[in-house]
Write a structure and sequence with these properties.
The complex is a heterodimer of chains A (about 110) and B (about 110). Chain A is mainly β and about 110 residues long. Chain A contains no helices and eleven strands. Classes of the chains: A mainly beta (about 110), B mainly beta (about 110). Chains A and B meet through strand 5 and strand 10 of A and strand 5 and strand 9 of B.
Amino acid sequence: GAGVSQSPRYKVAKRGQDVALRCDPISGHVSLFWYQQALGQGPEFLTYFQNEAQLDKSGLPSDRFFAERPEGSVSTLKIQRTQQEDSAVYLCASSLGTVKLFFGSGTQLSVL
Amino acid sequence: TQLLEQSPQFLSIQEGENLTVYCNSSSVFSSLQWYRQEPGEGPVLLVTVVTGGEVKKLKRLTFQFGDARKDSSLHITAAQPGDTGLYLCAGADDSNYQLIWGAGTKLIIKP
């Protein structure tokens, strides 16, 4: 596709629900990143994939967060048993290498 | 822990004025990037600076990387309403993939 596509754009979840956020990177991009962005803040690193391999998941806040990229293309970020503090914008970015990132529009998650 | 501090946090000026925003750290970065983010969208890369002392120009925007590669500035000449947005700086460390992000400068240009 022309750019990084994320879905859904908005997600409202009740506390305790599981959610799945999808990222379609730019075709051919090897690297894929997930970031969490709180209102008025810069993005915070969550995890990094090179093709299907998850090379770094050090930024995932808890074991309720899980990310996968099974075929080295589409990636899913799953949050189990959502909490109010999980409310944020979740950004996906892809890159041919690792430095020049192309971001999607993000998924705004609100946990009530 | 590497930190990038951006200042000011918020700036509101009239169209036609000049402005400078700053990105400072005590750490050395291999490169530094500037992004602009509009509401409801992801950040868009404006420029990457790599060499200490480097200056890059993008139309009315001038980016400078400090000699010691610890800080950077963004200067906008004759600001326009279309420049409104959140300006983020991000530094690349030795790992070469982890970006360290500042909290951003929210810029509003009033017509």
